[in-house]
Amino acid sequence: MKKVLVAGAALMVAGGMYAATASAAAVEPGVKITGDARVRLFYQNDNYGDFGNDDVDESNTDMDSRVRLNITGTAAGGAYAKARIRMYEGYTTDIDNDPSISSLDNSNIWVDIAHVGIPFNDNFTLEAGKYRSTYGPLGTTYNFFYDDVHLSGLRGIIKFNDVTINPFIEWVEESQTYAKYDVDGDPNTKDTDNPNKIKDNDAMRYGAHIKGQLNKDWAVGGMLGYQSDERDEDNVLPHLNYQNEGFFGSIYTNGKVNAFGFVAELAANDGNLNNFNSWEDDADAVTGPDLIGSDDTGFGGYMFPNYQIDKLNIGLNLGFTDGGFQPDRAFGFVMLGSSDNSRISAARIGDTGDWFWGGLVANYAINESLKLTGNLVYAEVDAWDSEGPDGDGPDTRSGALGAALDSAWELSAVLQYTISKGADVYFSAGYLAPEFEDSTLEDDGAFGALTRFELKF
Q1: What is the pLDDT of residues 303-349, one digit of tens each?
Q2: What is the pLDDT of residue 436?
Q3: Domain holding 333: CATH number?
Q4: Where do the segments described as Disordered lie (predicted)?
Q5: Which of 151, 157, 299, 389: CA 20 to 30 A from 224?
Q6: Final residue belonging to a domain, choices 246, 263, 293
């Protein structure tokens, strides 16, 4: 904790140096409230129930909904506070056992953003608190490596002309608590057989992101970070607390030349951090077993060259993962990956093996209100074959330990219709034809369909 306070002080001293040259501009104080809402209705055929076997004959039709309020309060001198209140209702199968209630202290209303921002001048702003970070070439919920990551900490926003720099210091997990390592059954007492469990053993993240606008058409960027982990290791169930520390980073670009467009990102992380960018609940702490990490350094990347022909954009999404690397859950298509956006996704890209994929993606603007996207994707998977965390990942060659894909084809489409300004509906459908590494598994295809209403206000 002491080194964090020193580092945080260094950030603020830097801000003070900038502040000596200029003062923050006065603004009109007040409060602004905006928001968004989402309702999803989806169908999954019976093969989702036990992917890879045909002995489960039970399809699923379900629904969830979410409303979020964004609150921004601005002081007269330009400083601000931001909060986001999230009201969520999970699957409607049994409201008495809704996962949003059972996992979040008997409440399905919580705050996932709560921070302040202090602009020292036009070039430097310091933000502190609970915020969300996206460092990549695309908008939030579409990036390959570091998308909509929610942590508490300090970050700077430093701007010079067309260059933005974001240094950050963040808490991944605050110490080890009595409750997590309780032996005598009383979460409020100290267990003498585990004297280290109440030390300030934090997992922290340090680093910086930089993005530059080369011209009006091209941008480049990258990030480099280090995660430290002073938590005591516990290799016995149910805790499985491995120390997840090491370097992580990425480089990316996004731009176009006339009708030709190009997006690409290349990322890597220390083996101990493989799967660190997995989506987790918006609760303050991750309390489940720690299953990330392996011995091998993870690498992954993709590129998306595309070409615009009148109202049609056609492109090729080519990518790979290696050494246990997994991209952010935001990345993917409809049936493969993209579980942040597609509730009917059947497999996560990078899971159970090292992947290579190629996807033909076509977008057609039928008119101003109607857009159609089609995907034809092939993925080849080399299943992990060594026990994690000593290898790439767990042995997934057997269906009992992970049901690794050997290959898969996806055929999917998304139709977007703008009902009115700020209100859209999306119709998605996809079919995944898998071939599994384990020859005893049935290569049953998965079909899903989704209707998603989105509202911004």
Answers
A1: 999 999 999 999 999 999 998 888 998 899 999 988 767 889 888 89
A2: 85
A3: 2.40.160
A4: 181-201
A5: 389
A6: 293
Residues 259 and 337 in one domain: no
**Mean pLDDT of the residues in the chain:** 81
Cα–Cα distance for residue pair 339/48, rounded to 1 Å: 14
Task: Identify whether 74 is part of a domain.
Answer: no
Beta-bridge partner residues of 315: 306, 361
pTM here is 0.82
Residue 204 CB coordination number (10 Å):
22
Give CB contacts under 8 A, 24+ apart, made by 152-155: 153/128, 153/205, 154/8, 154/11, 154/126, 154/127, 154/128, 155/126, 155/127, 155/131
Residues 310 and 369 in one domain: yes
In whole angstroms, what is the distance from residue 116 CA to residue 80 CA? 6
Instruction: Judge whether 126 and 101 are in contact, CB under 8 Å.
Output: no
Residue 92 burial (CB count, 10 A): 13
Nearest to 292 by CA among 275, 279, 271, 277: 275
Domain count, the chain: 2
DSSP letters for 362-376: EEEE-SSSEEEEEEE
Task: Report the pLDDT averaged over residues 358-375.
Answer: 98
pLDDT in tens, 224-281: 999 998 876 665 555 556 678 899 999 999 999 999 999 999 999 998 888 787 644 4
The residue out of 249, 272, 293 marking a domain boundary is: 293
pLDDT of the residue at 407: 94
